[in-house]
Structure formats: structure tokens, C-alpha cells
């Protein structure tokens, strides 16, 4: 919509711009059109103002260097109480399964607690462990590709993009493969807690999913304590720094975090990435001809349509970003999806180019909160796209379906379905 047309005449330029940006952001966060295709809205906000304070008091940062600064700066802290379900009092959070774990998990805590937890987790989540997973991931991908070849057509999101990360992360954690399908819906329901504009009804659905996964991982932690195995969860239980170990609650939170992040973001990388290739057949042909480009192409997939579209921080001291002084205590949203289309950082940013060699992507965050599972996600995507492009020269959208649907979510952006055919 043309936000400028709704602005009354006689206002100052600054007020006109502020109203215009607020209108675009409302369209971005609150309408199906904005959630489905955020990129034109990002561009309009980015060009109107790099740093904006909304009418609700939140600050929004849109350009690459500024979002990266926000992520890396020690003054940019995490405060889930300011971000999720702000209508609830802090003391009410323990009543909600989806909320009560957030203040104590690695994703939402700050130093020195973050330093402690990350150090303990890093003993188990090593580069060597990820490298050791590659042969297993190749076997998983081969098996999923066999199913695709046999079926001829299927919903790629349901039959490939979800099972692969679930199997990979589940295998690392030591989850029985038969349990994985039963965790998909509850985990996805919980993950919706990360969306802005959460309603009380939404939160109830998140709580229901979180209660199921909490109970499951409580039982699994107890089993591994009694009978350790050769898996990541057993390594996390055994990990120690002096006399320091992960507590029972921290272990359950870590399982939820690693499994949830492992399948949701990587599932969306696999889905958004394949859709980008199918929408740009000349780029898919280039990768088939030069498979050595696939690792760089995965980075371009992350940039072009990131599975993570925004981050949240609260600044504990006044912080200058993009030439604007953001006051202490302010809530700041960094639009990762917008940063990835910033022409100040990328040449022709709206072009999907598998040969691109430019700035690092922000999909896995940066600084002290850089994602522990980034290496695993990259390996899964590299193996998956190598196999799909090698085995299926006629890989295409299924002509029997006329709609590819994105989930109506912005924080974690991904497809609802992606029907493909290979025969």
C-alpha cells in the first residue's frame, strides 16, 4: 500500500517520515501480505530511515552494518521479559510452559551466565563432532532422496526439509528416530512464541507444545543420566568446568534449544533455498554444472531469504547506531532480512546469485550469540543440495499444485509447503 497517500498535509517532514515508517512496519508485522513478502517493505523503511523509533517506543534498525553492530555490541543485551508477551507480569511467566524456560536458556541469557553455559555446551558441540556427522547426514539425505525418486512427487517441506534436520539433530542428541515425527508439531507450536505480536490465544498454543517437549526431554535426560550413550546429550550431562555442570533444568532447556533451533531454522534454510533455486532455473543450472559452488550458494540462500528475519536486544547503556543515539533501556529490533538486502553491503542485493562472494550473512547472529549449530546446518544444506541437483536433473515444482505457501510468520521465515516433482 502507498503509506504516503494516507498522511495529512501540513505535517513536518520528520513527522511525515515517522508516520510513513510506522505504517510500513505495521503492514510488515501485522498483515498477511507483509509476512508473505517482507522485502519491499524492508526496502522502503531502509531508505526512509536507517534507525527508527516506533510510536510504541521500540527502535528498529534496518541496515547491514547497524544490525551487525547491534548483535555484536556488549551493550545490546537480551531481555525476554520485554520482548515476549509483554502484557504479562514477570511473576506470571512460571505459569506458562513456553515462557518459563526462556530466561534460563542459552539463547536468551547474558554474560556471565551466558559465558558459563556456552563454555559447557561447547565441550560437546565441537567442530570435530560436526565433521563426524557428515557421513551420517549423507546417508540420511540419500535415504530421503530414494523416497523422492520412488514417489516421483511429494511435499518437500513435509517429506524432506523437516525430516533431515530432525534426524541430524536428533541423532546428535541421541533421540530415537521413531520419536522424531511426534515432536514436530509440539516443537513448532512452541517456536511460535518467538513471533512479535503474540496474543493470549497464540501463547496458549505455544504452552501446549512446550509442555509436551519439556516432558519428553525430562524423561530423556533422566534416561541418559542412568545410562549414558555415545551422543551429545550424554556429553552435555558429563561436561564440566571444574566443579560446574549443567543443572537438570539447563539440560532440558539445552535439549529444547538445540533440537528446536536445529530443525526449525535448518528446515527453513532447506525450503527457502530450494524455492530460490526453482524460481531461478539459470542459477540451478549453474550449480549443476559447477557443484563446487554449492557451499557459497548456501550462503547466498541464507542471505537472499534468511530463515531468521530479525533479532531483539535491549541496550543497557546509551548506544549510537547509524548516527542515532539510542537511549539506555530501549528495546531494539534488528531486521536481519533487511540487512541482507542492503545495497551498501551487497551488489544488486535483490538478485539471487550463487556465485556471490561478499559480506558474511547474519542468519546465525554474530558476536557472543553466534549459533552453536551453524556448522551443522551448513553441512546439512550442502549435502542436501548436492544430492538433489546430482540425482534429479528434472527437479521442478509439481505442476499439479498452483500455490507455494509461506507460513504467516516473520521471525522464523519458512514455507508451509513446497510440492516438487522429479519424474
What do these coordinates show?
With 423 residues, the protein is of the alpha+beta class. It has a single domain, classed as Cytochrome p450 (Orthogonal Bundle), CATH 1.10.630.10. Helix content is 52%, strand content 10%. The chain is built from 18 helices and 14 strands. Strands 1-2-10-7-3 form a five-stranded mixed β-sheet. A hairpin with a 5-residue loop joins strand 1 (51-53) and strand 2. It is globular and about 55 Å long. One of its GO terms (molecular function) is monooxygenase activity. Keywords: Heme, Iron, Metal-binding, Monooxygenase, Oxidoreductase. InterPro entries: Cyt_P450, Cyt_P450_B, Cyt_P450_CS, Cyt_P450_sf. This is Cytochrome P450.
The class by helix and strand makeup works out as: alpha+beta
Which sequence of strands runs across the widest sheet?
A: 1-2-10-7-3
**Unreliable spans:** 1-12
* Architecture (CATH level 2) name: Orthogonal Bundle
- Whole-number total of structural domains: 1
Determine the CATH topology.
Cytochrome p450
| CATH-defined superfamily | Cytochrome P450
Number of helices: 18
Residue-averaged pLDDT, rounded?
Answer: 89
The 3D shape can be described as globular
* CATH class value: Mainly Alpha
Proportion in helices: 40-55%
**Largest sheet data:** 5 strands, mixed
Strand content: 5-15%
Distance between the termini: 41 Å
Query: Can you count the beta strands?
Result: 14
Summarize the structure.
By secondary structure, the chain is α+β, with helices and mostly antiparallel strands. It is built from 18 helices and 14 strands.
